[in-house]
Amino acid sequence: MRIFFTLAFMGLLGICLGAGGGISSGSSSNGGSVNETDDTRRLREGRPLMLTCVENATNLDTTWTKDGAELASSDRIQLFPNSTLYIASAKSEDVGTYTCKTGSLVEPRDFNVIELYLNKHLPKSTTVLENDKLSLTCLVEGEPKPTVQWLKNGEPLEDSINSTRLVFSENEYEVANASLLIKPVLKSDRGTYVCLITSFSIQFNTTTEVRVKDIYAALWPFLGIVAEVVILCLIIFIYEKRRIKPRFEDSDTDQTANEKNSIEKKENDVRQRK
Questions:
Q1: Integer CA distances (angstroms), 127 to 79, 156, 224, 250, in order
Q2: Which helix (H) or strand (E) segment is 96 a member of?
Q3: β-pairing, 49-52 with 179-182?
Q4: Residue 170 CB contacts under 8 Å (≥ 6 apart), including other chains
Q5: How far is Cα 97 from Cα 144, in angstroms, rounded to an integer?
Q6: Which helix (H) or strand (E) is 194 found in, with range?
Q7: 77 forms bridges with which residues in the sheet?
């Protein structure tokens, strides 16, 4: 009876803490969710890890091994008669392949326990100028290292782009092919790019829509602004010229009248002298 309550408590604890349920890789809407499968479980350091060889079983003689080495109950690892292996606080060192074998199973059952994190999704969209370079990085890490493949519009990228412009490299977590470089970028490189991540039977992705702008796309707005400034200056110049012209005409008229009055005055002076 004590064993029964212990098992029930462990089961409820595992469910509450997410030991065996679905898990999400992130909240971004442009990436898929990461779901555990029957034979691949994701380890989260410091959280419980529970593996059950046969569901709803009791009093089974079960043998567990990790990477070929047989396991025994200890302070950290508990093996129960219902064919369940339970670790209350998992560590990175618990990553590996667990194999269970019971008298009722003809073939042993394997569980792949992995660490897998997608630290950042690709942006929803990426804009790049023609003849510039496109650099995308899938910020995924894991143990063992996951496999990364790039797709463009649903097809392997290698089949869509000339290999002389295409470079794959490791990301900062040393995951192969997780960084992508295309140089130079052509208009034909527009499309939907997918970073497809695979680790055993877990597969998910993160996606970005790549837009390629014309090489002169940034020049046209600048030329438009320059044209507006030139037209504005021309309007101001014409307006000022038209506004100043009447002043010059009035000034010339006044000057002519003054000169005429001066001449008449001189003539009158001469007459008086005579």
A1: 54, 21, 22, 61
A2: strand 96-102
A3: unpaired
A4: 176, 177, 178, 179
A5: 11
A6: strand 191-199
A7: 87
| CB-based contact 108:99 (threshold 8 Å) | yes
Q: What is the model's pLDDT at position 217?
A: 66
pLDDT for the residue numbered 215:
76
Burial of 237 (0-12, 13-18, 19+ CB in 10 A): exposed
Identify the CA nearest to 51 among candidates 3, 94, 104: 94
User: Do β-strands 179-182 and 166-169 pair in parallel, antiparallel, or remain unpaired?
Assistant: antiparallel
pLDDT at 18: 33
Distance between CA atoms of residues 189 and 131, nearest Å: 11
What pTM does this model have? 0.67
Query: Which residues in the chain come in under a pLDDT of 70?
Result: 1-34, 217-220, 245-274
Q: What is the mean pLDDT of the chain?
A: 81
